[in-house]
């Protein structure tokens, strides 16, 4: 294969990826992160998100519990930060790939995804895979939970 053929194939693949969601490069949406003031593991999670291609902003929120309540995320599912993207909430150390999948699927009646607590080995919580297994939960508007992914 000559250089021109390789270049054309690369452009075609890039175009397919960028338009896979109705002409938007939505696999990499803007994400607003609200964290407990000064939490360093949140910064680690933001680095994972940025490395995955997301455009991320981060702000301290001294009243994260009130934000969580307004989003209808039960307190028992709390972590140290909440991310908002495309009308959905992502509580805790949700892996970027799970967020991409969720935003592509857009499950009906879902509020978003949750990783309760701060499991070791989740993105931002030490080397991935260094802790025990953990689940990413999908939270529905009726407060129902379902395992969305296991890591």
Describe this structure in words.
Helix content is 30%, strand content 25%. The protein is α/β, with parallel strands linked by helices. The chain has a single domain, classed as Glutaredoxin. Helix 4 links the parallel strand 4 and strand 5.
Which spans of ≥5 residues are poorly predicted at pLDDT below 50? 1-26
**For this structure, what is the CATH homologous superfamily?**
Glutaredoxin
Proportion of residues in helical segments: 25-40%
How is the biggest beta sheet arranged? 7 strands, mixed
Quote the distance from N terminus to C terminus. 39 Å
Strand order of the largest sheet: 2-1-3-4-5-6-7
Strand content: 25-35%
The coarse overall form would be globular
Computed CA radius of gyration, to the nearest angstrom: 17 Å
Q: What is the level 1 CATH name? A: Alpha Beta
Whole-number average pLDDT? 84
**Which structural class is indicated by helix and strand composition?**
alpha/beta
Helical segment tally?
4
Could you tell me the CATH topology label: Glutaredoxin
Number of domains: 1
CATH architecture: 3-Layer(aba) Sandwich
Number of distinct beta strands:
7
Order of helices and strands: HEHEHEEHEEE
């Amino acid at each position: 294969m000559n250089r021109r053929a390789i270049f054309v194939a690369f452009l075609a693949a890039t175009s397919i990826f960028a338009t896979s969601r109705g002409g938007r490069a939505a696999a990499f949406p803007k994400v607003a992160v609200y964290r407990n003031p000064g939490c360093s593991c949140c910064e680690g999670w933001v680095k994972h998100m940025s490395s995955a291609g997301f455009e991320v902003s981060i702000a301290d929120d001294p009243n994260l519990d009130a934000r969580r309540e307004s989003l209808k995320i039960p307190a028992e599912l709390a972590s140290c930060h909440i991310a908002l993207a495309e009308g959905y909430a992502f509580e805790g150390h949700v892996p970027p790939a799970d967020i991409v999948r969720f935003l592509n699927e857009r499950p009906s009646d879902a509020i978003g995804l949750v990783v309760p607590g701060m499991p070791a080995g989740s993105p931002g919580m030490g080397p991935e895979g260094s802790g025990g297994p953990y689940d990413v939960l999908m939270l529905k508007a009726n407060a129902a939970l379902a395992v969305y992914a296991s890591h």
